[in-house]
Structure formats: C-alpha cells, structure tokens
Amino acid sequence: MTQPLLRTTVIGSYPFPGWLEFACQNLDKFGEADREELIEDAVTAAIRDQLEAGLDVITDGEQTRLDFNLSFYGFLEGIELESAPPRRFGPPAHDQRGRHKIVAELRAPRGLGAVRDFERLKRLAAPILSAIGQQPSTRLKASVPGPYTLSGRLIPNQRYQDRYAVTEALLPIVRDELMSLVRAGCQEICVDEPSMSCYAHREDPNRFVEIFNRAVDPIYRRCRLSTHLCFGNFKGHAVGPRRYAPMFPAFHDFLVDEIHVEMASREFAELEIIGEIAKKKDVAVGIIDVKSYYVETVEDVAERVRFCMKHAPAERLSFAPDCGLSQTARWAAKQKLKNMVEGVKKVRNELGIDQSLTSGKAGVRD
User: Fold this and answer.
1) Residue 4: helix, strand or coil by DSSP?
2) Which residues contact residue 34 at a Cβ distance below 8 angstroms, ignoring those fewer than 6 apart?
3) Residue 7, class by beta-carbon neighbours within 10 Å (0-12 exposed, 13-18 middle, 19+ buried)?
4) Cα-flanking dihedrals φ and ψ of residue 268, to 5°?
5) Measuring CA to CA, which of 33, 36, 146, 342 is 20 to 30 A from 287?
6) What is d(CA 364, CA 250) in angstroms, rounded to the nearest whole number?
7) Partners of 261 in the beta sheet?
C-alpha cells in the first residue's frame, strides 16, 4: 500500500470528551452495555475529530485506556494492583502513578486488549469514511507499549529480580499481541518505548535495541512498523533528560520502518538527527507541542515543515504532534491537528505535489 508524501499522522492517544471523563469517575453507576456504548461513542468522536482535521493516519484515540500504558495492567495475571498512588497531593508528577506487586507468574491469557480495540476502530471508521467520501488511503493505526516500558510500574520480586527480568517475562506477551494485531489485518502499528528514550542516558542503548527487536521481529515487514521516542508526558511533564544523543547511533538498528521524534517542545534541538535517521528509515517529526496551549498557526507549521526538509527528503518525512494528545484539552487538540494538516498541505502545494500523489513506497513489504 502506498502513502502520501509528507503524510500527517498521530501517535495514538486523543483527549477524552468531558462526558467520558465524568463517566470514568462513576463507572459503578453504569451497566456493561452502558459502558460499551460510552466507549463506542468516544471512539466515534475521536475518529470524526481526526478525519475532520484531514489526517492521513488515524487511531481510536485510545479512548478505552485510562493511560497509554497503565491500562494494560488490567489484562495481566500475576500482579496485585495498587489501590492508591504513593503521593496524592502537591504538583502532579510521575511519582503519583502507582506501582504494582508481582505475586505470581506474569501471564495474559486474554491478550492485552489491543486487537479488540483495533477491530472496533475498523468497524466504527468504515461507515464514517464511506459517508464523508474520505480517500481510501486513510490508514488506521494501533499503538502498543513495548515490554521495557510496560515493565516500569511493576515491582521486581524474588522470581523477577530486576526490571530486565520483568521485561523478559513481558516480551512474549507483547510479541503475541503484535502478531495478533497483524492477523487481524492491522497494517500500521506503533510500538511505544518512551522508557527506552528516557533512560538511554544511563542504560545500555544496545541492550534496548536487542530487546525491542526480539519483541517486533515476527511482525517486521508484515506491516508498517514504527516506534515513538519521547521523554514522557504525564500531566505534561518529562521524566528524562530531553536529549537524543545518548540513543544514537544504537537506535538506528531498531527493526522499524519509521522512528518518531519529539521536536516542537524542544525548539527543534538536535533536528539534524532526522537526516541521519532518514538514511535508513522514515522519520515522523513532532512539529506540534502537546505540552503548550499555544495553538500553532498554519504558517508556523509550514515553516517547520520547510525547516525539516532542509535535513531530510520529502519521501522520508511524516509529521505529527510531539506525543499523544491525551494530556491536551480537546478544543486545543482539534485546532492544533487542523492547523498541522493545513500547514503540511501548504508546503505540498508549494512543491507542486498533488494531494493524491503517493511516494510509491510500500507500507507493507513483501
């Protein structure tokens, strides 16, 4: 399947509608059918917002997840979920996210839920795409946390004595979920490993690459595979030193088609790295700052796209927000996405690129 030049995409999450936020605080008042209706309505809203913005790639907005990562623990057997975070007051930060005890062998007999989410996205997106006459090239993307990131909130024990041991236990679980997504027809998958980007400065980045590649090897070249490298965005806050230098050159060896990098919130520091990535892979550049309530104008976006094209060729570039949008108010997220798409279109027009023209690259390789 081909893809547009200078395509526009998202990472995964999208803001919850206000009514869903309220419902999540009162789920005990809803029946099972009520909850499923809530989910379907929220996913439909996320799809419509993204399509109205004109994105080339959309997701379900992760409307079924209270967090891009933490919600997956509900599918794991062998853990005892912490009932309350260790710190509940004061400025929000990562130490307000709970950690869970491992009490038995880690298993996920029901999978991790991503396949069901993708099937729902396909079902709900199809009639909307048909009704609005959207281009059939619109891609549906699923996002799954990698095993190292997923291990971050689990407390090692005698059976799993450190974070790497926990990661090894989770790796086949994540790998099985990725394989199930491909079998379900998912052609675009992002494996999120922000913990690898946050801790590459103090851990062995080559070890990270080896772990990542074992997790994705069965699906590499069976879908368009990407990874998202950022520095954390819980409550709009980073958790690691915001530098890409410690990750490279090791991360060039990830088995992916595309690497996404956070640039807008960092004033495009280290932008030259996209030229290095583009020598072997596609690169999705974060040109919308999800941590700021300044809404980038169409011209802001166009200027940033032109800036990126000084470092990497158009056929290698995609554009996205810096991170998922779950921590951004919906009104701001909607306008930021619309302006991002319009800014990219402006540069496409300047280059004489027909909006239906494709790069000729196959997203799914033989």
Assistant:
1) strand
2) none
3) buried
4) 60, 30
5) 146
6) 25
7) 229, 285
pLDDT (tens digit per residue) in 47-92: 999 999 999 999 999 998 865 556 788 899 999 987 677 777 877 7
Largest separation between any pair of C-alpha atoms in the chain: 62
User: Which range, of 47-56, 62-71, 155-164, 314-323, averages the lowest pLDDT?
Assistant: 62-71
Nearest-CA neighbor of 228 among 268, 188, 186? 188
Q: What is the pTM of this model?
A: 0.89
Q: Could you give the residue ranges of the DSSP H alpha helices within 133-256? A: 147-150, 163-183, 194-199, 205-216
- Cβ distance 140 to 129 under 8 Å? no
Report, in angstroms and rounded to the nearest whole number, the Rg of the chain calculated over CA atoms. Answer: 20
How deeply is 310 buried, as exposed, middle or buried, from its count of CB atoms within 10 A (0-12, 13-18, 19+)?
A: exposed
Are 55 and 7 in contact, with CB atoms under 8 Å apart?
no
Provide the β-strand partners of residue 258: 226, 282
Contact 175, 148 (CB under 8 A): no
Comparing 36 with 318, the larger pLDDT belongs to 318
| Preceding omega of 156 cis (within 30 degrees of 0) | no
Q: Which two tokens stand for residue 238?
A: 């980073």
Give residue for tokens 């099972």: 32
Parallel, antiparallel or unpaired: strands 282-288 and 258-262: parallel
Query: Nearest CA to 139 among 229, 9, 324, 18?
Result: 9
Residue 304 in tokens:
């940033």
Rounded to 10 deg, the angle between the 330-350 and 32-53 helix axes is 30
Could you tell me which residues are beta bridge partners of residue 260? 228, 284
Burial 66-98 (b: 16+ CB within 10 A, else e): ebbbbebbebbebbeeeeeeeeeeeeeeeeebe
